[in-house]
Specification:
Blueprint lengths: L7 E6 L10 H13 L3 E6 L4 H8 L5 E2 L5 E2 L4 E4 L4 E3 L2 H11 L14 H17 L14 H15 L7 H19 L15 H16 L2 H21 L8
Parallel strand pairs: 1-2
Antiparallel strand pairs: 1-5, 3-4, 5-6
Helix pairs in contact: 1-3, 1-7, 4-7, 6-8, 7-8
Protein name: GST N-terminal domain-containing protein
Organism: Cercospora zeae-maydis SCOH1-5
InterPro entries: Glutathione_S-Trfase_N, GST_UstS-like_C, Thioredoxin-like_sf
């Protein structure tokens, strides 16, 4: 990482101790900050406090519940050097590239690819969100776990979703998840990343979701995922380790 005082405060969702990133969207930005060597510090926020923190910062919710009420999420970045507050994950990635262009070529987006990467982001989010119920070991701080459970149940009710997972349903979902990642694996024509030797934001999007599943699936399930499709997903996560540092 580059030296110098951190000008960016990165707001991330607090886990149980030891504090670490576990959700997909914060992982996208932590990987991006580390890859671009932008100095930053982390402000950990308990999930029940996210709405209050965003409102205090003056960052409006960028998502809504089914009833139209605001749904506040993280990450947010606050850049003291420019005064910028950015609260949408994809917009944060664009901000980092435009405000902190890399002299070493470590930019998140290739020229003229923003639209393509936005479509890729939506596609990947859709794949992994469909199987997020496999993440049954979310590492929330025990002090807020019951309140978080209530929040999830309320949001599921808004969306008309059944959050219960029988063993039969879980097994069927696990098989379908392997098939979905099998289709995605066909995009890996270059090695070790989608576009060759160096990652771009499209790689970080996939890596972030894999890191979430690594943190939140039962260990035996994640061990299987790592081996799927010739061990591709384990290699993707391993290749991103240099940029997975907690700061």
């Amino acid at each position: 990482m580059s030296s110098g005082a951190a000008s960016i405060t990165f707001y991330d969702i607090a886990s149980a101790p030891p504090l670490r990133t576990f959700a997909a969207n914060p992982w996208k930005i932590r990987l991006a900050l580390n890859y671009k060597r932008v100095p930053y510090k982390t402000q950990w926020v308990q999930m029940p406090d996210i709405a209050a923190v965003r409102e205090k910062l003056g960052v409006p919710a960028n998502r809504t519940n089914a009833d139209g009420s605001p749904y506040h999420t993280l990450p947010v970045i606050e850049d003291q050097s420019t005064g910028a507050l950015v609260g949408d994950t994809f917009e944060i990635a664009q901000y980092l590239d435009s405000t902190y262009p890399s002299k070493e070529g470590k930019n998140l987006f290739r020229p003229e690819t923003i639209g393509l990467v936005a479509a890729h982001n939506a596609h990947i989010d859709g794949i992994f969100t469909k199987y997020a119920l496999l993440c049954s070991k979310m590492p929330f701080d025990p002090s807020v776990a019951s309140k978080v459970g209530e929040m999830f149940a309320k949001r599921a009710a808004y969306m008309g979703k059944d959050m219960s997972v029988s063993e039969e349903r879980r097994q069927a979902m696990f098989i379908a998840f392997e098939a979905a990642l099998g289709e995605l694996s066909k995009a890996y024509l270059a090695k070790p990343f989608l576009d060759g030797q160096d990652p771009v934001y499209a790689d970080l999007i996939i890596g972030a979701w894999l890191k979430m599943f690594e943190a939140c699936m039962p260990e035996e399930d994640w061990a299987q995922v790592r081996t799927w499709h010739g061990g591709l997903w384990g290699r993707v996560v391993d290749e991103l380790k240099p940029w997975a540092e907690m700061k």
